[in-house]
Sequence to fold (338 residues):
Amino acid sequence: MKTKKLQTTTEDIQAAAELLRCGELVAFPTETVYGLGADARREDSVRAIFAAKGRPADNPLIVHICSMDMLDGIVSYVPPIAHSLAKDFWPGPLTMVLPKKDTIPSVTSGGLDTVGIRMPSHPAALELIRVSGCPIAAPSANRSGSPSPTTAKHVMDDMDGRISAVIDGGLCEVGVESTVICFDDEETIHILRPGLVSAEDLEPYAAHVYVDEAVFRQIEADAKVASPGMKYRHYAPHAKIIPVDAPDFMAFEAFVASQNAEDTWCLLFDSDPTMSEVPCTRYGDNGKEQAHLLFLRFRELDEQGAKLVYVRMPKKDGADLSVYNRLMRAAGFEVIKL
Ligand code: AMP
Ligand code: MG
Fold:
């Protein structure tokens, strides 16, 4: 199969929408990362997503919508908190897990009776959903396990020949996947995956907001978890990623100097001084900048032949938790604490 490269023009979005209506796979930009889309209602198309990605069948897909009318067609109940959140955070990087209707086949939801729903804010994504008329099931458009793609080139690197088309919308703004939440009851928000929308952002909407333990530690492959995606190793480049929890830059630098391993790189903050012994790249100074650049840097480090990467540890509060979580999962939750 030849993968067509499309732009965000009206004609190209129409061509992509037609491919989706015919049951084909199209990768498209969102504000978080690139998604690998298919009509969420078609079992055959959704199965093709799992095959193209090499994704485990029990890892559910997020369904992308462009209007509240579309939501009514696919979920059976929307709690009042979800209504308020939709009003304030959609379109945007927040996914809500809700009870599904039969229009969404069980292959889309990884066998669950709930489905994750998001209204993305990227204009090309919204337009693609609107023109196709399809709720679009879309996981990140990478091969399962690799870093999520934040450019159309990353999508091609992983998916060329496996999908019908990719729409090029440039570098994604947010850079990490959406915040995924579910509702334990009418007053409790349970954060399954951290993203740009933080626990602090959600606190005004519910009596209780808490973050799932799988965000902080490795979950056994056979464990029963609230969010199946959290148990799989994820987001990792080929290079071995080692987060170093150092009290300051000097301690970090001294540790790296003492290791003197080959093909070693460092991933530093922008404000860190230069290091002479080891090649370095940087990923910003706050959670927003780090989220924007993390996956891009992972892929660049592989291209540069890095085998081992020591990484300055991000913070854990607010949106920074999304970066911490992706980094820890790329590292298999192993950290060097100085
Ligand atoms: P991705 O498609 O790669 O962004 O991954 C989507 C993630 O959202 C999954 O790996 C799950 O962790 C989570 N998710 C999606 N739907 C559900 C659901 N119905 N219940 C729990 N978690 C979900
Ligand atoms: Mg993914």
Observations:
- The mean pLDDT is 95.
